[in-house]
Every structure is written in C-alpha cells, then in structure tokens.
Amino acid sequence: MSVTVSDLLKLPSLQQARVIGGAGGLKKVVSSISVLESTDPGVLINEVFRHNKYPGSEIVITGFLNCINDVECQCSNLLRLIEGGEVGMVLYYVGVYLPRVDRRLIEIADANDFVLICMPEGQRHLRYSDLITDVTECIYKDRLVPGSLVSDILARISSAPHHQQTVGTALQMLCAELGCSAVLTTHEGNILNLATWPSGMEDTVREGIGRCLPFSAEQTCAPCPFLADAEMSCISIRSDLAQPLRLALIKVGAPLGASLVEQAADIVRICINIWGKQHGAVAIHELLRAILQDEPLKMRRLAEIFHVDVASVHELWMLCGADAGEVEQRIEQDLALARQCADTVVGAIYEGQPVMCLSTPHSLRETESAIQEILSCALKTSPDAVVVRCSGLSNTTSCRRAYLLTLDNLEDAKRIFPHKKMFLQGELELAASCRKRIDEGEAAAVRRTLPLTALQADREYHDLLDTACVFLLDCDGSVTRTAEMLFLHKNTIKYRLQRIADLLGYRLGKMPETIELYRSAAVYRLLHEIR
User: Fold this and answer.
1) 396-416 and 514-528 are packed helices; what angle lies between their axes, rounded to 10 degrees?
2) How far apart are the C-alpha atoms of 346 and 418, rounded to whole Å?
3) Nearest CA to 385 among 368, 370, 372?
4) Sign, CA torsion 107/109/112/117
C-alpha cells in the first residue's frame, strides 16, 4: 500500500517523461491522480482545499492551458498545490501550447521536493486519459496486495505540510484509502473529527451520527441506521488521553474486515498521540511501542517522522519497581542522563515503566555513571527499584527479546541476586535458564545442584554453602566484600574458601571449573529463595 512517484515513472505512459524538478520527493506516496486547469489560484483555496482539508497525496496533471503565458499564475498555482499536500505535477503539451517550463517553476519544485515531471515536448497526440488509466490501475492493484495500512498512512501524513499533520488529515486519508466515512467522537458523544467518502456526504453523515451518539463501549459492526446498504463499525481508541474515544467507520456495500478496522483504530490512536495534543507536539513513545512490539514497517515510518536512526539502537535500559508518580516526574531528566552517554536515545514510559532504547554508549564509565544517577533518584522514593541494562543487541528485534526477557525473568533474577540493584542481560538469561531447569521437575533441578554436594562431606556444610553462594553470586569473588556481607572476619572467609577448595579439588573462582558451581548456586538460591 505505498505507490510512490518513483513507481509511477515506470508506467508505460511515463516511460518517456523526465523529472525536471523536485527529485527529492520521488519517494513520496501517491494516493490518487487529478487534473488541474484552473486560472485563479484562489479556486484551489476555496474549492479544492476548502476548510484546510487535505486531498491526500495526489499527483496532478496539467498543461496550464488557461495561463500558458502567465508564469506568475503558474507559480501561484504550484505553491497552492504544495501547501495543499499534493506530491507532484505532470506537465503536458510543453512546446505545443505551453511555450516552455519557466525556471521559477523548477526552483519552487526543488525547494519543496515537489516532483515536476515533463512529458515529451512538442507532442500533440498525448492524452491525459492514458496516464489517468495507468496511475489508477497501479494504485488499485497495489491496494489489493496485503500490506500495512498503518505504515502507508504514516508515510503519507509525515510527508504532508506541517500544518496538515493532524488527526483530521489522517481521517481523510483513511476515507480515501478504504472508501468509507469516518467519525471520531468523545466517550460522551461529541463529534471531534469527521471525514466522508464521497466528500459530499458530510451533512448526511453528521446528522445521522448525531442521532446514534453516544456509541456503546463495545466494538460493534451492524447495519448503518441512516444509510441504505451500509455497515457501521465502531471501536474504542485508547490513546494517551484520559478518556477513551470512539471511532465509527461507515462503508457502503461490503463491510470492512476486522483487520482493517483494527488498523484504522491503530492509525487514529498513533496520530492522536503524535499530533493530537498540541501543535508540533510529538509522542516518541509511539516509536518505542513499535520497537518493543516488533512492528518493523510502523517503526520505520515513525523513525522517519522523528528523524531517529533506529538501526543504531543496540541497548535497552529499564527502570523497574519505581513509584509511578516519581517516574512521570523524572522521565525527562532520566532521558537527558542517557543522552549524555549515547548519541541515539528513544525512551518513554511504556506499560507503566521507563524504557529506553539506545545506541552503543560512548564508554562504560559514562554508562555506569548515568545508570547510577537514575537509580539513586528512584531509590529515594522506591527502595525496591532496580535498573536493567541489556547491551550488545544486534537490532530492534533483539530489543524486543530483551524487553520480554526482563518481564519474564526479573523476579527470579532478584531471588538469585537479592542484593543487586542493576541487572545485566546475562543475569536475566541465567535466571531464565535456572527457571527452565526447575520447571523440568525435581530430578532435573537436583542434577543442576550436584556440584554443591561435594560440600556435604564437611560438618560445616551449611556455612560453606552460604559462603560459596555469597562469594560467587553477591561479591564477584571478593574476600573483603564477602566478609562484610556475612559479618565475619576476613580470615574466617579465607579459611572457609580454603576448605571449599579442598573439597572441590579446585579454588573457588578458577575458570572454567567454577562455571558449573556458579550455575548450581543460582539454581539452589532460586529453589530455596535465599534472600
């Protein structure tokens, strides 16, 4: 669902045409084609683009037949088309009726990435109908191919003029794409936005919808009560606004499928969150949502809107267990800290928790400093707060996996490492592995703790086991820290470590011998929930 101007240039009717200006707009999406032969630019404002409406990424055919010698009028018409959101123009009959393409037209096209295409010059036999047929067929065939309606609409609205990037524009695009009317209302039944297909149905739809409001809270699909042979689908829009909104889609003939209705609701929700709050406001969390839900097409479109290089994202940070009110107040400061150590940061509150996707940080020292400050602030009001850092991620799909890994295994990781406040990906993966072994049954769990059974030969078995677990899991092999944590003298710890080494046949901490013992200690803790 994304025919571009570049795609149209491959059509038979345009194969001999050439781009003479605005080549920067070749990747813009085209939704339809129309003909312009107006003399007065004011007509475009009062009739074509009335009430600041957006026609929807059209490409325009013209020969400027009514103003062939008035370059000022030609430029004014071109500017009005650009302001209205059109993506390009195909010029006919240059050298036949239109003497030449004035340089000023090309300069305007270049400055606005408005594709200016010139048909072969000096040819009288060219007909508008050939191009109209080709373009219409191309767009129709493209719409038959299953694709992402969300990605298509986002691509078109993001390339629209800034003042046209609104929820109303999104509804108009949906109407044109789906051949239906769309109405967005509040929970109480007030109409916020309305767009109709065809456009002359506004009064009929507004009056009919007014008699149906407010809509019920459940999603419905039923015969439209005010239009014959039409189906009306209603669905809730849960945006970031306090109250859920309701979207009604009215389609004459065959009803819209459930998938299209869901995609339409997704588009409206995204546009409300990005452009519906205040002029120029953005909701970067929509991009974060696309990353964490692994929706590549939507992610790419949103990345273009926010000018974010998502390919550079290789790290995920999460603040878990923090007070919700404090999180709301601190999120911007936390993002600022993350930006001090990474060039790309996409972050927001997602599912109640601050989540950040980052490019590879500049240095470990800067990273640890930023995370420590984020954590310190959270701990002032939330003693159970922890930070998760997953690094070395290959792509955004890995970011989603890391996010799910955290959701599924953080609580077990806390049981294994009860004194930690910052968790790395490896620790979460260890917790997942331990949980898997435990879930396989008691026999499997016992097998995983076999390396610890060597300590049972000593009468101080429980003391040695406790020391081994603290030394390996809590203190990174530090005798001093182990002594402090167990409230014992260092010599006592040294004695116990020597005794453990005698029983095991190798010194605790020596690799790779200690690897299995480390895993055994983790399984043991998870089984017994040592805290």
Assistant:
1) 70
2) 30
3) 372
4) negative
204 closest CA partner among 174, 179, 234, 183: 183
Cβ atoms within 10 Å of 270's Cβ, excluding its own:
27
CA 289 to centroid of chain Cα atoms: 5
Model pTM score: 0.64
Give the Cβ contact number of residue 7 at 10 Å. Answer: 17
Check: CB of residue 6 under 8 Å from CB of residue 26. yes
Q: DSSP H helical segments within 63-198, as ranges?
A: 71-83, 103-112, 128-144, 149-158, 167-178
Q: At 388, which helix (H) or strand (E)?
A: strand 386-390
Q: What is the pLDDT along the chain (531 residues), one digit of tens a residue?
A: 578 999 999 999 999 999 999 999 998 888 888 888 765 655 544 555 544 455 557 899 999 988 899 999 999 889 888 887 889 999 999 999 999 999 999 999 999 999 999 999 999 899 999 999 999 999 888 877 766 688 778 877 777 776 677 788 888 888 888 889 999 988 778 888 889 988 778 889 989 998 888 877 666 788 999 998 999 999 988 776 556 788 999 999 888 888 889 989 988 888 888 776 543 334 677 889 889 988 887 888 788 877 889 999 999 999 999 988 888 888 999 999 999 999 999 998 888 899 999 999 999 999 999 999 999 999 999 999 999 999 999 999 999 999 999 999 999 999 999 999 999 999 999 999 999 988 888 777 778 888 888 888 888 888 999 999 999 999 999 999 999 999 999 999 999 999 999 999 999 988 898 998 999 999 999 888 643
Are the CB atoms for 105 and 34 separated by under 8 Å?
no
> What are the C-alpha distances in Å from 327 to residues 108, 291, 355, 378?
47, 21, 11, 8
- 380: exposed, middle or buried (Cβ count in 10 Å: 0-12, 13-18, 19+): exposed
Query: Helix, strand, or coil here: 447?
Result: helix
Q: Beta strand pairing status for 18-21 and 115-118? A: antiparallel
**Integer Cα distance of 324 and 348 in angstroms:** 13
Candidates 247, 107, 125, 113; CA nearest to 175 is 247
Question: What burial class does residue 9 get, using C-beta atoms within 10 Å of its C-beta: 0-12 exposed, 13-18 middle, 19+ buried?
Answer: middle
The CA distance from 135 to 433, in Å, is 56
